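pipeline/complex-builder :: batch 7 item 3
reading input block
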Amino acid sequence: MSASESIYHEIRERISLLHYPPGTALGEKVLAEEFGVSRTPIRRVLHRLEFEGLVTISRGAGTMVTGVDLKRLKEVYALRLKLLELMGELAPARIGSTEIEEMEALHGEIVDLGGAYDPEGLARLYNRFHRASLPLIGNAALRQFSDQLYYQTVRVWLQVLPDLNWDVEFQMIVDEIGAVIEALKENDVQRVAEIRHKHMSLLLGRLNDYLGSAISG
Amino acid sequence: MSASESIYHEIRERISLLHYPPGTALGEKVLAEEFGVSRTPIRRVLHRLEFEGLVTISRGAGTMVTGVDLKRLKEVYALRLKLLELMGELAPARIGSTEIEEMEALHGEIVDLGGAYDPEGLARLYNRFHRASLPLIGNAALRQFSDQLYYQTVRVWLQVLPDLNWDVEFQMIVDEIGAVIEALKENDVQRVAEIRHKHMSLLLGRLNDYLGSAISG
DNA sequence: TGTATACTTGTTGTGTACAAGAGGTATTGT
DNA sequence: ACAATACCTCTTGTACACAACAAGTATACA
């Protein structure tokens, strides 16, 4: 992986884990010094992140991590649900043993946590689950879009996670990964898509409940 | 629109109209001189085009316009068809009079051609039709993806257009735009999506016929 | 005291020189 | 004649200096 690429992944991870919460100013100079390169490769990374909707760049003013308004959030989730249906319909990829192993490793690590309260740790593991799921999407364009949309919404979930029922959220993820592993062992990508669709749908419901009550009271 | 932005649109248009056919080398220096800027903004544009899959950049070797292999073509068309269904289902946008007027202008211009053989002219008009259609997609993320996928496939159609039945292709586009205008006048975005879906599906059939015969004989 | 204005500071955008790398060509040795 | 090698030229990547611009701050004036 090129240096540029790893810088991109690092910054994207920081945004998704709220190390750079919405509104954070990302100075090119500061980042350049931290990563030990000049502004040039940093600028390339930031422009890509802008294209993907994670930061906004304004000349003279600076670069800021974007927030996610409710309208956008609903749009992206609606689209992600539909894309999950497509994941099952369009040319499902073959399942390699690598993916299953990574998933089982993840499942083990999560169970080892034993439900201990650690939002960032859980988010980190879920990011890995996302990465391990991507190869299951056979359609390359669909895979790219799914990846892009994922990073526009995880941080919202992580943001409200402290106000949700931790035990429920934790168990849901354990269940999701466990069910996905079962489906993978039977080479059933279609069912993987259905499982993820169901869980995302449930999560959306919980988010709606919370956001609704947060607005009204 | 910023200078960078217009350069991006210009190069993308050239790729879609086959002024830069697949395999063309795009030198940063040459482009910089043509547009009267330094390599810096050109590089930003080329990297965006690479991200969108229209060029490949390799250090030391150069930047080349990508080709579209059959697998990728089928994937993208399959996805585009699905996204069209979503266009109808997900938050259809309101229809402004501007869009209808642009569409009617387009329809007029095409009819004025009177079926005269002009593949590039037709492609140019179809690009405008695409641009005029975009605002009808209410979901911002879906709009972005649709735009991106469109430019990965138009040039394939334009490439084989000389080998297809010109009168059929011409008439199909006239019909499509005409039908879309009718639907727009009745504020029926859902029907617009259905019309475009039907026409894309038909086009895909004609492409398959041609590509099949081109392979076998 | 309030307000308009100039300025100071910090940011991103651009231009340019140089480094790193790829690929073809000439050259040289056998 | 042929093959290996050095090199020559072109490409993209990086670093850095400077321009363009935004925003807050101090200052001068009414």
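note: Residues 25, 27-29, 39, 43, 57-63 of chain A lie near DNA strand C (CB under 10 Å from a C1').
queue -> next item
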